[in-house]
Design brief:
Pfam families: Amidohydro_1. With 466 residues, this protein is an alpha/beta fold. It has 16 helices and 21 strands. Helix content is 32%, strand content 21%.
């Protein structure tokens, strides 16, 4: 059966697997573009959490993977472009679930079109945005990527932040008044291209109405919550909860219904993650089939004493870099910081969530603390390993789990015959040395191989520029 499937895939008409057309501006970053490509001798991490396998061959035809197996038994089609990748690790393209196309947390929020190159150049081939303060700019960026004008990840857009309460409804925040308003707004932004919707804070009525309006269209909802707890949101049918332990207000003593306690994101530092109450809350979240998106890296950037990433700083425009460095120097005196013990408890909670059967994905959440697209997604890998996940499990969280949360696991997220050829080549062994994860050399999206270094270099000095 396996050989029959391989023969069928290898013989499939290339016209049925055509790659997207690219403009010269995007083609300048292409390193590999052949009808059939064989990646040989790789260390394979397939995204399923299975142990890595040495000496494997992966064959790509058009936009699809058509063969995966040991090099000694996997035939290379005649005429294929053969790439000997001994000493390299091959893993699926990252499927990231808390991404931004604007750069916030500074005196002035600016578009971040350069982020597209940073995402793709770091191995992110699918990116779900998590609310935008510049939603029309985000839709324009998506159109440029989809048209082949700009290299970047496959963007799934959420549009503006939906919220409730007085005084909101300007900029990237849209106030939702009632169920009819939620239905109208979901319809409006779905017509513009949004496939997910982001609720910020709550209250319960807004979250409920947006979930119902989105689900009626077969669309999904994510949220950064405070006035609504994770357990309450799971009971309402939310699809993805952002950030995890640190934003779950049910752990704040004296939490009142539909009130965002000011101690949220601070009180959790003194909560016992192993306590029966916390473990029961995790069971309720899992029972409600709500996924959680880990964003450990961005919260680490609020830990006083942690260094800035020098590689990321090179991407900032000079004035933006000065502001980021000044903010970092004064972090301990700013209004919000994350103590080391809180970051450790976030890690502990995520392990407990997965152990209870929860579906954990990950995203970067770029911010003005110097936490940037691409670099932040890869930093999450290191932190998930530090949290106690096996390297292969951490890669699963970053890839196949993300695809499952999106409902796209049949198409992306792992390396298997018939799946989209979204692949990341890393020089060395990031399983033995997690810091090697940053040495991404080649990224395939839809079967086209992009020069990862060239992509990242193209963004130098551009983040923070209008």
């Amino acid at each position: 059966m396996r050989h029959a499937l391989l023969a069928l895939l290898l013989a499939a008409p290339l016209a049925a697997q055509e790659r997207p057309a690219l403009a010269p501006s995007a083609r300048a970053f292409v390193a590999v573009d052949a009808p059939v490509v064989a990646l040989t001798g790789v260390r394979l991490v397939d995204g399923t959490g299975a142990p890595a396998r040495e000496g494997h061959t992966v064959v790509v035809r058009g936009t699809r993977i058509v063969a995966v197996g040991p090099a000694r038994t996997t035939p290379v089609p005649r005429g294929a472009r053969v790439m000997d990748l001994a000493g390299h690790t091959l893993m699926p393209g990252l499927v990231s679930l808390h991404e931004h196309t604007y750069f916030g947390g500074l005196r002035q929020t600016v578009p971040m079109n350069a982020g597209a190159a940073l995402y793709l150049g770091s191995g992110v081939t699918t990116a779900m945005t998590a609310g935008s303060q510049l939603p029309h700019q985000e839709l324009s960026l998506k159109r440029m990527i989809d048209s082949g004008t700009l290299p970047g990840p496959r963007l799934l857009v959420t549009g503006p932040y939906f919220t409730g309460g007085p005084g909101r409804g300007s900029g990237g925040f849209v106030a939702v008044r009632d169920a009819a308003d939620a239905k109208r707004l979901v319809g409006l932004w779905a017509a513009k291209g949004a496939t997910w919707f982001k609720v910020h804070n709550g209250p319960t009525s807004v979250l409920r109405d947006v979930i119902q309006a989105a689900h009626a269209r077969g669309l999904r909802v994510s949220a950064h919550l405070c006035s609504v707890t994770f357990s309450e949101a799971a009971a309402l049918g939310i699809d993805a909860l952002q950030h995890g332990f640190i934003t779950n207000s049910e752990y704040v003593p004296g939490k009142q219904p539909d009130v965002c306690p000011p101690e949220n994101m601070r009180a959790q530092a003194d909560v016992d993650v192993a306590s029966p109450a916390v473990q029961e809350s995790i069971r309720r979240i899992v029972a409600g089939r709500a996924a959680v998106v880990s964003t450990l890296g961005v919260y680490e950037s609020f830990v006083p004493g942690r260094p800035l990433d020098a590689r990321a700083l090179e991407m900032l425009a000079p004035a933006t870099r000065r502001e980021v460095e000044a903010n970092h120097a004064g972090l301990a005196q700013r209004g919000f910081t994350v103590p080391e013990r809180l970051l450790a408890k976030m890690m502990q909670w995520e392990r407990a969530f997965v152990a209870a059967g929860g579906l954990l994905g990950a995203g970067s959440d770029p911010w003005g603390t110097g936490f940037l697209p691409g670099f932040g997604n890869l930093r999450n890998y290191e932190l998930l390993v530090q949290a106690g996940f096996r390297p292969e499990e951490a890669i699963q969280i970053l890839t196949l789990n993300g695809a499952r949360i999106l409902g796209e696991e049949a198409r992306i997220g792992s390396i298997a015959p018939g799946k989209q050829a979204d692949l990341v080549v890393v020089r060395g062994d990031p399983l033995a040395a997690p810091a090697r994860i940053y040495d991404v050399t080649l990224v395939f999206r839809d079967g086209i191989g992009y020069d990862a270094v060239r992509l990242r270099d193209s963004a130098k000095g551009r983040v923070g520029v209008f």
